Amino acid sequence: MGHVNVIDVPTRPRGFQTDEVRAEYCRLSWEAPEDDGGVPITNYVVNMMDLTLNDWVIVAETKDKTAEVKGLKPGHLYRFEVVAANKEGLSPPARLKDPVKAENPYCAPAAPTDVKIVISMSSL
Questions:
Q1: C-alpha angle 38-42-46 in degrees, rounded to nearest 5
Q2: Taking Cα atoms as reference points, which of 76, 115, 82, 61 lies closest to residue 14?
Q3: Engineered SS bond to 91: which of 10, 100, 106, 124, CB 3.0-4.6 Å?
Q4: What is the CA radius of gyration of the chain?
Q5: What is the spatial distance between Cα 99 and Cα 95, in angstroms, rounded to a whole number?
């Protein structure tokens, strides 16, 4: 009896996550799919949706399992997905569970309040 080798698109990438988020860029990473479809993965495609525009756009194509997405608009919410590609086509997308808000992980300090000037008589 002969051996049958089924060739298909890969399964979705695993472990898709944000590694760093800033007001104007973010870094994403993921792991290879569990099943490459019987042929090597050629590349990964990262798509982004600005929730104010509601339209997916390709923001990166890479052979690595990381991507840095630049040009985010501070304060905007984004959705990200990544698909794996082989010669048979594209995998289903791996998506982040929650939208990503483009913001720095820190805030500028607020203006001081209740400021008093104290003059010490001992320093005069």
A1: 115
A2: 82
A3: 10
A4: 23
A5: 10
Partner residues linked to 31 by β-bridges? 14
As a whole number of angstroms, the longest Cα–Cα distance in the chain is 103
Question: What is the rounded distance in angstroms from the CA atom of residue 111 to the CA atom of residue 122?
Answer: 30
Cα–Cα nearest to 69, from 18, 31, 106, 107: 18
Rounded to 5°, the CA angle 47-95-86 comes to 65
Distances (CA, A) of 83 to 4, 59, 95, 99, 119: 26, 12, 9, 17, 66
With residue 95 as reference, give the H or E element that holds it.
Answer: strand 94-95
Structure confidence by residue, pLDDT tens digits, 40-58: 999 999 999 999 999 999 9
> By three-state DSSP, how is residue 63 classified?
coil
pTM attached to this predicted model: 0.81
- Cβ neighbours, 10 Å, residue 98: 9
